[in-house]
Amino acid sequence: MAAAKPYRAWFESLSDSSEQYPLEEIIYTDRAGGLLQVVHDMEALKQHSADEWKQKFDRRARRSDWPYGSGVWGKKEWVLPGVADENVVSMYEGNTNLFWAERYGRELGLENLWIKLCGNSHTGSFKDLGMTVLVSQVKEMISQGVDIPAVACASTGDTSAALAAYAAAASIPAVVFLPRGKISLAQLIQPVANGAIVFALDTDFDGCMEIVREVSERDGVYLANSMNSLRIEGQKTVGIEIIEQFDWEVPDWIIIPGGNLGNVSALAKGLDMLLELGLVDRKPRICVGQAEAANPLYLAYQKDFEVFEPIAARQTVASAIQIGNPISKDKAIDALRRYDGVVEQASEAEIMEACAAADRTGLFNCPHTGVALAAMQKLLGRGLIKKSDRVVVVSTAHGLKFTDFKQNYHEMRLEDFAPTHANPPIELDARYDKVRDRMLQEIDLRFRG
Predict the structure, then answer these.
(1) I need a surface site. Which of 178, 258, 287, 337 has the fewest CB within 10 A?
(2) Distance CA 323, CA 319 (A)
(3) Which residue ranges in the chain fall short of pLDDT 50?
């Protein structure tokens, strides 16, 4: 009887499958300057049937058998099979709630709306899914004698928080480059608290990205941004996990906000593996939502992706996706073409109103989720999403990381529009009769009117 093939993965050029590199090599692009991808030995993975993989993943989920209780590392063979278990750096990321937004969906006229709450994670965003993989691979490489002085990223907030936390857990120096004054205080304090070397630069995200690329090329610092395709291996598990949570049934739509666009290609890559290994037999449609102030993918979509032109991103409350020249644009466009995808945009008012309306039904959304929610409402309004469709909106971060924009909204300190759902505190004298009368008035007005 033939011995089972070992599980393997390697870097490979997107344009030339013969150009391959081991994952232990410090490399980010192919010879032509294009992005790499991580490729798995699918024949080895096919040694297990679809039912066997489903059972294996189900047995591991949320258990204490290190490191397989993690939503990412429970799928280790599909993610990073070559890393020794002792080099895995995990906060038990993933396995986040797939929330049935019954009331919110009913108010919109949707029967089957679900929110994938990726912000219910260690650092409060979906970036944990990719960072656990990248930092684990770095720790594996260091254990093999590879000289890596530090790991670095450019960030608009969430990536820096994830890198700082996972690097701290692994005792690996982390360096973070942020655009000064363009991220929330909650996002800034996370890498500071975790001991990262934090630089606040007088530029935007794209300028920070140029700096981090230069220090990685000249000084040997390991690059942790999404142009490093290791991150995609962790982020792809969100699509796998959504379908696993539906008992391996495929939703009709998955809607995701897009900035640097690595999350879009990651979502498609996870779905690709499910299809190739026979765990599902159909595709969902994908929608990418972009802020109108930072919408290069949307503009390209309007021209059927025949032309993609970087833009100068303007300020938006959705600061983590305020990116005008996304690194992963080619991968994202390929994913959208293969998944019958669409791109929609949302204005600043639409983002904030979508967040506020959803929050009133028990959610607490980040502004980037608001972009996806606003995009979803537009597709629903056009009839592209049917009222009976099963729709999943990927919520990328926890709303507590973005309280400033919520406070400005509810205190009605916005220049351009009057909020529809503002709910400022009611200030009264501490007298029972006044409080009682106003309380009963508000109950009648809000819930019985």
Answers:
(1) 337
(2) 9
(3) 1
Q: Decide: pTM greater than 0.90.
A: yes
Supply the pLDDT for residue 3.
66
Q: What is the pLDDT of residues 422-440, one digit of tens each?
A: 999 999 999 999 999 999 9
Q: Both tokens of residue 19?
A: 């150009």
Alpha carbons 312 and 299: distance in angstroms, whole number:
13
Side chain identity, residue 65: D
The answer to whether the peptide bond before residue 310 is cis (omega within 30 degrees of 0) is no
88: left (phi over 0), alpha (psi -120 to 50) or beta: beta
Question: ∠54-58-61 over CA atoms, to 5°?
Answer: 140
Q: Give CA angle at 286 (373, 398), nearest 5°.
A: 40
pLDDT of residue 278: 98
Provide the Cα torsion 369, 372, 373, 376; round to 10°: -160
For residue 449, what pLDDT is reported? Answer: 60
Integer Cα distance of 449 and 441 in angstroms: 10
Sorted by where each starts, the structural domains of the chain and their CATH numbers stand as 98-124+231-410 (3.40.50.1100)
**Residue 322: alpha-carbon gap to chain centroid:** 14
Q: What are phi and psi of 134, to 5 degrees?
A: -60, -50
The pLDDT of residue 2: 57
| pLDDT score recorded for residue 1 | 45
Q: How is residue 358 written in tokens?
A: 């959803």
353-367 burial, b for 16+ CB within 10 Å, e for fewer? Answer: bbbbbbbeeebbbbb
Residues shown for the chain: 449
Q: Determine the straight-line distance between the first and last CA of the chain, rounded to whole angstroms.
A: 74
SS (H, E, C) 339-363: CCCEEEEECHHHHHHHHHHHHCCCC
Cα angle 299, 265, 177 (rounded to 5 degrees) comes to 80
